[in-house]
Amino acid sequence: MWVFECVRRHAPTLTSLWFSERPTADTTRFLHDGKGNAVVVYHNLKSIGFGAYDLEMDSEMDSDSNSDLEVLATTASISEPTVHFLILKYIFLEYSHPYSDNMLFSGNSDTLERLKLDVCPEFCKPFSRIVKFLKHMPRLRTLHCDVSFNPPSINGVSYDRLPGYMLRKRGTFEKHFYNFTPCNHKGNVPVRYIAKALVLLFLECPQIVLLKSDRFKHQYGKHVLDFFTSERFANAINRAK
User: Fold this and answer.
1) DSSP codes, 160-177
2) Distance between CA atoms of 139 and 46, rounded to whole angstroms?
3) Per-residue DSSP letter, 13
4) Measured distance CA(129)–CA(149) in Å, rounded
5) Given phi > 0 = left and psi -120 to 50 = alpha, else beta, which region is 82?
6) Phi first, then psi: what are they for 84, rounded to 5°?
């Protein structure tokens, strides 16, 4: 298809690339030459996005593309040695991850600054996975993703013990991360869980902007304040000192 030939031809200078309403099979065509032999490397690509796939093409989609994204993004091994995106800073995924391996995240853990996952069900919803992901992406500035239906926990530690645990483990995040935007598209995640996740991330990243928009302030502001001012939260902080 001429579109992919055009993308491949401009690989040395292309800075942004967006795929919209494409079946999964199409997302591999710009990674190799038209014959599927020589690989294509994007030296200057800084942002890439994958829109929602055409539902009529579901039968052609590789079921392996629904692999656990957290595992793919934080593993060191890849199916092929080539790093296609050398300086990628922004990844946007709508609905699903387009590949069955971690090719999209390979080689950019030190450059990725912004990650937006819009209704991406296979991503790391549990709080412990979000923490693991942030540790693996030291230059990540913003993260937009769904959160778990369950209370935040790490390594089996939850509820009142978790703030103290995180303070004792503090220093694992880099100074760059400052904004976590939680998704709750269906509205069925308890607001108090999302608010607590925000507060706990603040313990790891004091520079984080807890509630960036008025919409989030309206939804979570009271719960965040309640956590910060609660006696149990204060006791947890004191025990960790």
Assistant:
1) THHHHHHHHT-S-S-TT-
2) 14
3) T
4) 13
5) beta
6) -80, -30
pLDDT, one tens digit for every residue, the chain (241 residues): 678 888 889 999 999 998 876 655 677 788 887 776 688 999 999 999 987 654 444 434 333 344 466 666 666 544 556 789 999 999 998 777 777 777 888 888 889 999 888 766 555 567 887 887 787 888 888 888 877 778 888 888 887 788 878 777 765 565 788 888 877 666 667 888 888 888 888 777 777 876 665 566 677 778 888 887 887 777 766 665 5
pTM, two decimals, is 0.78
Strands 157-158 and 153-154 come out as antiparallel
Tell me which residue of 179, 8, 176, 14 sits closest to 88, measured CA to CA. Answer: 14
Residue-range definition of the domain harbouring residue 151: 2-240
pLDDT at position 184: 66
Question: How many domains does the chain divide into?
Answer: 1
d(CA 143, CA 147): 11
Q: Where are the beta strands (DSSP E) in 25-141?
A: 47-50, 90-94, 114-118
- Measure Cα distances from 90 to 21, 55, 116, 167 in Å: 19, 25, 8, 29
Helix%, strand%, coil% for the chain, nearest 5: 35, 15, 45
E runs forming strands in the chain: 16-19, 47-50, 90-94, 114-118, 142-146, 153-154, 157-158, 179-183
